[in-house]
Design a protein that fits this description.
Hypothetical upf0131 protein ytfp; globular
């Protein structure tokens, strides 16, 4: 079993259950020292180190099999790589994009999935709106 930190579309409980049927949502969690961004041709969520910032997300427990399924979905190791941090003595895995390409706004469909994930995890939607500000003026 592995702790996993979700911060984008995998916050959406129904979608996460479809991808990883036996995953277990633990609780909402804040990752300090990072900020949420949107990039790649998809306008997908990414995190990058940024002192004084934080990323709102959720902790799940997933199996090794589920991790392999997420690896495929996240296009690991081409699009995303894995990084690790500690939570209450446990190692937690999450993904971050390999290349920090230019910022790109998310598609409406993707953003709606992320917004539902924020509702599912009872996260403050204001933090998502703040993360969207740098891409608000950009065209898809």
């Amino acid at each position: 079993m592995q702790y996993y930190f979700a911060y984008g579309s995998n916050l959406h409980h129904a979608q996460m259950k479809k991808r990883c049927p036996k995953c277990r949502y633990i609780k909402k969690h804040i990752l300090h020292g990072y900020q949420l961004t949107f990039r790649s041709k998809y306008g997908a969520c990414d995190i990058e180190r940024k002192i004084g910032k934080k990323v709102y997300g959720a902790l799940y427990i997933i199996s090794k099999c589920a991790e392999k399924r997420l690896d495929v979905y996240e296009e690991y190791p081409t699009l995303y790589k894995k990084i690790y941090f500690r939570y209450k003595g446990n190692e937690v895995m999450t993904y971050t994009m390999v290349r920090k390409t230019k910022l790109v706004p998310p598609t409406e469909r993707y953003l709606n999935i992320v917004k539902q994930g924020y509702k599912d995890c009872k996260l403050n939607i204001k933090s998502l709106k703040t993360a969207l500000q740098p891409v608000a003026h950009l065209q898809r």
